[in-house]
Amino acid sequence: MSEKFCANCEDYRATKAEDRTETYKVRGREIPVPVHVDVCLTCGETLFDKERDSDMLHRVYAAYRRMEQLLTPEEIKAIRRRYRLSQESFASLLGMSEATINRYEQGCLQDAAHDAAIRACETAQFVKAQLELRGHLLSDWQRQRVEQSLAGQAPDAEAVLDALGEVDWICMPKEVSIQTGYRRFAYHRFARVATWFCARMNTVCTTTMNKLLFYADFLCFKVATVSITGAAYRKLQHGPAPADYGGLLSRMESEDLLVSEPVQYPGGYVGTDYRQGPKAKELAVELTPTELAVLEKVANEFQGYTAARISERSHRETAWLNTPDKQLISYDEAANLSLSLPE
Q1: Ramachandran category for residue 268: left, alpha or beta (phi over 0 → left; psi -120 to 50 → alpha)
Q2: With contact defined as beta carbons under 8 Å apart, do 234 and 171 qualify?
Q3: Which residues are registered as beta bridge partners of 20?
Q4: Angstrom distances, CA of residue 109 to CA of 80, 210, 295
Q5: Residue 215 — pLDDT band, cuts 50, 70, 90?
Q6: Which pick of 47, 78, 231, 277 has the fewest CB atoms within 10 Å?
Q7: Do residues 82 and 152 make contact, with C-beta atoms less than 8 angstroms apart?
Q8: Which domains does the chain have, with CATH numbers?
Q9: What span, in angstroms and rounded, lies between the C-alpha atoms of 77 and 261?
C-alpha cells in the first residue's frame, strides 16, 4: 500500500493496486482492455497516471486494429520505406497530408479509406499508377528512388552515401567554383552538418535549417576560403537556401538521417521540424577544428531565434541584398557576412 495524490480528495491518500478490465468505445466498437490501476482507499476513485493512460490508449487502438484488420503503425512505416520515400513524398503520392502520415506512424488511429490506400501500396502496380498520376509532386530524386524500388534496383543506405554519381540525383551545381565555395558538393558532408545542427539545437524547422546551413558555409568560406559542404545557395523569399533543399531534406529523411515532425504555427500554418535521425551517427565524416568552430559559432549565435527572426537577419546580409531573386549567391559575399570567428 502506498500514498499518492488523489485529485478528487485534493490530498495524498493511501491507495491500492487493482487489476481490472475496462471497456472503451472506439468508432462504435466496445473494446475490453485489461488494466492495472491505483485506487484511492478514501473515495474509491481511479488515480490518473499519464504513462499508464498513454499505454492503455495504444493497447485500445491495437485491439481495434486487430478487430478491423487495419495496418499497424509499423506496417505503415514499412510500406513507405519499401519505396524509400519520406513521409512528405509518400503523402503526396497518396493525396494525403504529411501530418496525416506522421500521425499514423506515431500510433494515431487511421480511417478505413486511408488504410485501404496505404495497403494498396503493397502492390507495385498501384504504386506505378499513383506515380503516373501524382509523380509530378515528388522531387526528381524521390521519384527516381520510387522507380528504382519498383525495378528492384534501390541501393541500400550505405551505398547511397558512397555513390559516385550522387550529385546527379539532386539539383546542385557540380563544379568547383565561387558559387560552391571552391568545394565540389558532397552530400555526406551536407548531411553531417544538417544532423549536427539538429543534435545541437534539438529540433530545427525548415526555414531555420536553411539559414543555419547558409551561415555555416559562408562563415567557413570567410575564414578559410572554402565552404564546408560545397552547397550552392539561392536567394529566396525567406532568405538564402540551398539549391534543391527540398530534395536534400527528403533524401536525408528517407535514409533516417533526419526525422520530420509536423508543427502548427499561429495562424494555422503547418510547417516541419527536423531532429536527428537514428542513422545520423553512422555518417563517417570528420570535420576539421575550423569547421567545428564555425558550427559552434553559428549555433551559439542563433540559439533561440525564431524562424522569422533568423529570416529577417539573413535579409540584411549583402549576400541576399546583392543577388537577384532565385539566382545563385556568390561566396564572394562572405567577406561582408555579419558573423566572424574570434581572432
Answers
A1: left
A2: no
A3: 35
A4: 17, 33, 40
A5: very high
A6: 78
A7: no
A8: 2-68 (3.10.20.860), 73-154 (no CATH), 166-336 (no CATH)
A9: 14
CB 65 within 8 A of CB 72: yes
Burial readout 137-167 (b: 16 or more C-beta within 10 A, e: otherwise): ebbebbbbbbbebbeeebeeeeebbeeeebb
Mean of pLDDT values over 170-190: 87
Residues pairing with 36 in the sheet: 19
Q: Which of 134-148, 211-225, 239-253 has the lowest mean pLDDT?
A: 134-148
Confidence of residue 168 (pLDDT cuts 50, 70, 90): very low
Q: What is the pLDDT of residues 253-288, one digit of tens each?
A: 888 999 988 777 666 666 789 999 999 999 999 999
Q: How confident is the model at residue 163 (pLDDT cuts 50, 70, 90)?
A: very low
Higher pLDDT, 22 or 231: 231
Distance separating alpha carbons of residues 50 and 332, to the nearest angstrom? 55
SS3 at position 20: strand
Give the side-chain half-sphere CA count within 13 A for 33.
Answer: 22
Sheet strand arrangement including 258-264: 204-205, 270-276, 258-264
Q: What grid cell was written down for 260?
A: 520530420
**Over residues 150-162, mean pLDDT:** 50
Question: 212 with 302: CB under 8 angstroms?
Answer: yes
* DSSP string covering 220-273: HHHHHSS-SS---EEEETTEEEETTHHHHHHHHHHTTSEEEEEEEPTTS-EEEE
Q: Which three-class secondary structure string do you get for 125-145?
A: HHHHHHHHHHHHHCCHHHHHH
Other beta carbons within 10 angstroms of residue 335's beta carbon come to 11
The runs of H, that is alpha helices, within the chain are 50-68, 73-82, 87-94, 98-106, 112-120, 124-134, 140-150, 157-162, 187-201, 206-224, 245-254, 289-302, 307-314, 318-321
Comparing 28-32, 207-211, 283-287, which segment has the lowest mean pLDDT?
28-32
